[in-house]
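Might I ask for a little of your time on a matter of protein folding? What I wish to show you is a protein chain and, alongside it, a tokenised description of its three-dimensional fold. I should value your view on which stretches of the chain appear to form regular backbone elements. You will find the record immediately after this paragraph:
***
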Amino acid sequence: RIILWYIANVLSPWVQNDMYTTTSSMGDLLKKSITTWKGSSWRIHESNFQPAEMLGLTPGCINIAPCWFQQGHEVDFDDGFKPEVSATLKGERSLSMIMAMQRPALLASTTLWVMHPELYWASIATHLKLGRWSVDQGLRDMHRLLTHWASVYTGASIMCNHQSPDHQDPKCPPEAFDILTCIGGYWHAIMQLTNLGIELAYNPGVMVSYSGRLVRHGIRVDKGDHIVWAWFLWDSVHNYAHTPRPDYARYNPTIYNQADFTIYGTL
């Protein structure tokens, strides 16, 4: 089984620029996301953010999803809960936000197609089913957003100057790959995969993809601004669309030849 991919220096200047300008434009949403309440999730508690050094950046952590389940509504579909647009997209600039995300979204989708083709096509099927469902339900805003959503992923977490302690993501299918892309003005960071005993250099321009449900991961950047876009798939959304779950990606020497990786690494 393959549960981890690591690709250094993969983000082009154009993708990095899109991530920076789009994140900067979300400053008001990022600012509102941070809380001081002790009982809140570590993802949005103020203790896990550091001040921005560059003008125009705002620390915070938000989720962008055109069709998902709100917190606590993912388990039982018979209780009347249905997928909805994330709160961050319930505004006048929702369409412009997701269109600004299209180039990084396409990169994440293409990467998944290479890493796990079966999961890619299952996600395409889910997206199409949700599009038809939104039309049948008369959810015009959701349908419009799904039409312009360029990713096969359920959504993306947009994080700025956010510290992530070791954790796992139980809402993701174990066979799925989350994708993390990171940019910024920092020079050294380590991503720890504690239950695998692995530490990865987490430099600007990197892409790390892993099973968020199986791999315990954490990131800390002590100095410098950093922006992370984490693309995620949610089990509940695929289940709602009745999309069959694909098997794990598996290593196939006829496809993944070690000599090819050596050549690619020199390009």
